[in-house]
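General statements about sequence and structure are easier to judge against a single worked case. For one protein, we set the task of working out the structure tokens from the amino acid sequence alone. The sequence in question and its structure tokens are set out directly beneath this paragraph.
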Amino acid sequence: MCHLSSLSIGQKIMSKAVDVIIPVYNEKVQIVRDSIEACRATFDKTPEINATIIVVNDGSDPSYGVDELRSEPGIIYVRHEQNSGYGTALKSGVRAGNSPWIAITDADGTYPIADMPKLVEQVGDFDMVVGVRTGEVSEIPMLRRFPKKMLNLFASYMSRTKIVDLNSGMRVFSRELCYYLWPFYPSGFSFTSTITMGAIMGGFRTLDCPINYFKREGSSSIKPIKDTIRFFRLVCRLGLIFYPMRLFFPVAVVLFSAGFMKGIFRDYWLHGYIGNFSQLTMIAGIQVFMLGLLGNLIVMNRAFIGQSAFGTVGRDARDNQSGQQSARVESENVVGLK
């Protein structure tokens, strides 16, 4: 656990270059400007950090005036012609930058941008530092608290590591980690969940730092039921890639136990034989267990021959970064903050 202290950040940071990506979708331009100014003010106080702000307009309605930012000095402005999703916006921001470290935050005023340098302070010792929303102020809507807790518990079980905040939108991570998981980033809000699970199960070093979380300005585009189901599916998929037995074993135990209990304590006790349904259920449990073992063998074999769980797709995305732009960078003469 990281503690956000007031110690001089310059004592630990040795000139780090960071791309700060701010995805925007249907936010009032003044709210976005406030976030940009907060970034500027924050990093002006830390000359050791060479920060570049990248704003990605993910197809916002023209009535919000976000396109006014294309003439904003000192930023990289990326524009999608149509809304492509949170994950796609972040990927476009990653492609637009080239710093070894990447920071992400939201444009709606919910995350304390002033704490960003304190997360950057820890990188180098860790591959990703996550701002977990457990500070003194935590304005997470009540409707989302219970599903969020269940999701964190399920993700913790699948990854064999306690996960406090699976999908926090404020974090700093290495470009190497980002490209390692590149093929599995979805277009929607599951980007942060993917990089959290992938980093932990892929053996990367991660650190949690408590931050505040404020009430958002404007309306949220998150769909609680639909996105929660998508998050659970994502956790299952990543679990199958790294720890397949964490998913197969409980299913196998339930099937075999149900068939065994019915066969012995009902069929045999009442009729003197084990029924066909009980036998089929026990056989299904054994088959599911064997599938889990097969999945484990595949994972171990991949690790033995020195390949990542994602093959070479992530490396291809890194090597061909300049040729894979999915969005148009509006600024031609782009400068960072420093």
